[in-house]
Structure formats: structure tokens, C-alpha cells
Design brief:
Blueprint (H helix, E strand, L loop, with lengths): L1 H10 L8 E6 L27 H17 L5 E6 L25 H19 L6 E3 L21 H18 L8 E8 L3 H9 L2 H4 L4 E5 L9 H9 L4 E6 L15 H15 L3 E4 L6 E2 L15 E4 L4 E4 L1 H10 L7 E2 L13 E6 L5 E7 L5 E7 L3 E7 L3 E7 L1
Parallel strand pairs: 1-2, 2-3, 3-4, 4-5, 5-6, 6-7, 8-9
Antiparallel strand pairs: 9-10, 11-12, 12-13, 13-16, 14-15
């Protein structure tokens, strides 16, 4: 079964051993249609809430298979793109809009209850989620004409939503910070500090929050020191990169065998990990030859591209770049401090971790057009020097 082989390539021991995954709460731009879990206008008690056929027939069986073939615990977290349209000010899943009313009103309470319903329904179907974000890209909800599912939250409304509704609703249902991780923001790097500042400095909101999530699409417009800022100010909250993809808004969307896209993944992961990110989550695990399906025609690239008519799929360099991290930096690995004596112009990026089995792992990227000599000095284990080929990724492990 080719679909099973694809999941094994990501999650199994002979694959790249993914240990975390993001589960959309209802529809996204990469759904084949627009949908939510409760389309009955005014149903504040959510009596008509039900999972979609996509969940029952596709997502849940696929998730269960991934969990079954993985040798690790796989942390799963949910993210919602939009509320049902009757709860949103523009009465559409897509387009600029926020929840109706104010943050003390019934729409915000119902939106929190909606999240709990989702978690409970997945639990009933045998899937326990590790956490959730407060919502995908909340700033998109303020962009006029936004083409796909979105729901706007300012830092202030996100703060109030968490402390007045989401946090208490989760706690009442048994999803506490001890066993369930809520992440705020889930948006671009430039807006990360202001969301963290406004939400996390409020003790009544912060007590429900475990982490801060970010996406990669504007990482070139803000310094990674923003991550340092958040870590230093709120060291008890983890940082997690929760979405990235190549091919967005450019042509070609799908670029077979594009090594530069693999390098871009590795570069971004290394920079995030070296600035306190505790992990990095890709967007779509598989897309078709056009970079879909996507009802919103937001075609992009993916580490694996499926050719369903030929019953085959192709692994892009992004897949192998991800494997250097997901396969070797196993859960609970800890980043080690390291220094470099290379010249200021040397473009090599690297990170060093220690695994729970006391194995040292070094992942390095040489994105330049020239090979370079690379020497590693470990005071406990000695020195190794090797020729680092141009445009290559290397992983070294030692005990």
C-alpha cells in the first residue's frame, strides 16, 4: 500500500522518524472544500457539532497508522484556521473577520467550547492530543480580501480569549498545563514579541499557556534575536516553529529535486534551534503534482509529491534535509553550548545536541559554492577534521 509506505517514510524506524505533528481543526486552505464542524447558525451549545468525513475516513485512520509505526511518542497538536462562518463578523470562513461581539460575549465562549469538543471527539476516536495553538495566523484575519480560512485575534483579544474562555474551558475538561500544552501566536516572527509581551505578562492568561508558536514566512524580515527576547523574558515558555513550506506565491510552486529548497529548510531549522526553538514542524507532508489539493488555489511545494495516476511519489531534497534533524535529534535531546573559530565570512551553520542516551549529534550545513575544511573539537572525545563539500548537509554522531 503506497499510502502506508509514505507514512512509514515519515514516522517509522526506517524512515525519518517524525516525533511531532500538527492537526488542523476542521478545514484549511489545503482542504478540498470549505467546511467547519458546526454550521448551524446560533448553536451556542454546539449540539450539532460533529467531525467531518475528512476526519473520520482520512485523518484519524492516517494518524493512527502513523502512531502505530512510530517507535517514539508522537506529540500531536491542533490548530484551527477559522471558526464556523456564523460566528465570524464577515460571515465567511475566508476573508478578514474576527469573532462577533466582545471578548466577554457568547461567541468567544462558544469558540473555546468548540476546541474542547474537537479534543474530546478525537479522544473518543482513540487519539490523545498533546496540545493546541490558539489559532493559525491570527493577523491574517485583519487582511482585507484574505483568500482562505482565517480568524483575527489581536494580542489583546488573544489574551482575553485565553484567560476568560479557552483556559478555563480546557481546565474544566481536564486539559491542564501539566498534561496539555497551549501555544499562543502561531504566526510570523515579526509579530512574535508583541504577542508574547501582551499575552504572557498577564498572569491570568499566562498560567494556561505553555509555549509560543511561530511560522517561517517572514523570517527574513525580523532577526532571530526576537526568539532570544521571548526566551529571556519568559524562560518558562517553550518556543516551537509550527509551519513552513517552499513554493508559496512563487513559480514554480512544485520544483522537483530543488536542492536550494532543501538548504533553505536546513538553514531555517538551524537558526531556529540555535535561538531557543524546541522543534520545527513542516506544513503538508504530501501534495500532488500541482502543489495541491487546495480549494483556495494556494499551491505550494512539499517534501513528498504524489503522482496518484502513476501510483508513485517523489522525495524532494526538503525531505532529506528534515531527516538530518528528525532522525538524529530525538525527543528530549538538549542543545549544547558551542563556539566557532571560523572566519566571519564562513557561511557554515551548525548546531550541537546531546541525546537522552548521551550521544552527541552535530548537524551542519555548508550553503556556499566552495568546499571548506571543518574541524570539530570535543574536549571529552578529541578532534575530527573533514572536508565539507559545497552545498551539503552533514550529521556527525559520537558517544
Amino acid at each position: 500500500n503506497l499510502s502506508e509506505r509514505l507514512i512509514k517514510d515519515y514516522f517509522a524506524e526506517d524512515g525519518i522518524q517524525y516525533s511531532i505533528g500538527r492537526i488542523p481543526i476542521a478545514g484549511t486552505d489545503f482542504s478540498t472544500r470549505k467546511y467547519a464542524y458546526n454550521e448551524v447558525d446560533g448553536d451556542f451549545n454546539l449540539t450539532h457539532f460533529e467531525l467531518a468525513e475528512e476526519d473520520i475516513n482520512l485523518k484519524i485512520p492516517t494518524i493512527k497508522y502513523a502512531l502505530n509505526v512510530s517507535k517514539h511518542e508522537v506529540k500531536l497538536f491542533g490548530s484551527a484556521w477559522s471558526s464556523p462562518k456564523w460566528m465570524k463578523t464577515n460571515n465567511e470562513l475566508e476573508g478578514a473577520g474576527v469573532l462577533k461581539g466582545n471578548t466577554t460575549g457568547p461567541y468567544y465562549k462558544t469558540w473555546a467550547d468548540y476546541a474542547v469538543k474537537f479534543l474530546n471527539h478525537y479522544r473518543t476516536n482513540g487519539i490523545e492530543l498533546w496540545g493546541m495553538t490558539t489559532g493559525n495566523e491570527p493577523m491574517a484575519g485583519f487582511i482585507p480580501g484574505y483568500r482562505w480560512n482565517c480568524l483575527g485575534f489581536t494580542p489583546f483579544s488573544q489574551r482575553d480569549f485565553v484567560k476568560l474562555h479557552l483556559g478555563p474551558a480546557l481546565e474544566k475538561a481536564g486539559y491542564t498545563p501539566e498534561n496539555f500544552k497551549v501555544m499562543i501566536h502561531d504566526d510570523q516572527l515579526p509579530s512574535l514579541p508583541i504577542y508574547a509581551e501582551i499575552v504572557l505578562r498577564d498572569a491570568n492568561a499566562s498560567k494556561y499557556i505553555s509555549g509560543v508558536a511561530l511560522h517561517w514566512y517572514q523570517n527574513n524580515y525580523a532577526p532571530r534575536e526576537f526568539l532570544n527576547f521571548v526566551h529571556n523574558k519568559f524562560p518558562d515558555k517553550f518556543i516551537l516553529a509550527t509551519e513552513a513550506c517552499e513554493g508559496a506565491g512563487i513559480s514554480p510552486h512544485v520544483s522537483f529535486g530543488d536542492w536550494s529548497r532543501g538548504e533553505n529548510y536546513a538553514s531555517d531549522i538551524l537558526k531556529d534551534l540555535n535561538h531557543w526553538s524546541t522543534g520545527w514542524v513542516d506544513w503538508n507532508i504530501a501534495l500532488d503534482l500541482n502543489g495541491g489539493p487546495t480549494w483556495a488555489e494556494n499551491f505550494v511545494d512539499s517534501p513528498i509529491i504524489v503522482n496518484s495516476t502513476a501510483n508513485e511519489y517523489y522525495k524532494n531534497p526538503m525531505y532529506y534535509a528534515l531527516g538530518h534533524f528528525s532522525r538524529f535529534l530525538v525527543p528530549s535531546s538538549i542543545r549544547l553550548d558551542s563556539t566557532t573559530s571560523t572566519s566571519w565570512w564562513n557561511p557554515v551553520l551548525y548546531t550541537v545536541f546531546e541525546t537522552p542516551k548521551q550521544e552527541i549529534v552535530l548537524v551542519a550545513l555548508n550553503p556556499s559554492d566552495e568546499p571548506t575544511e571543518f574541524t570539530v573539537r570535543d574536549p571529552k572525545h578529541g578532534i575530527i577534521t573533514f572536508s565539507f563539500e559545497a552545498h551539503s548537509i552533514v550529521t556527525l554522531t559520537w558517544v
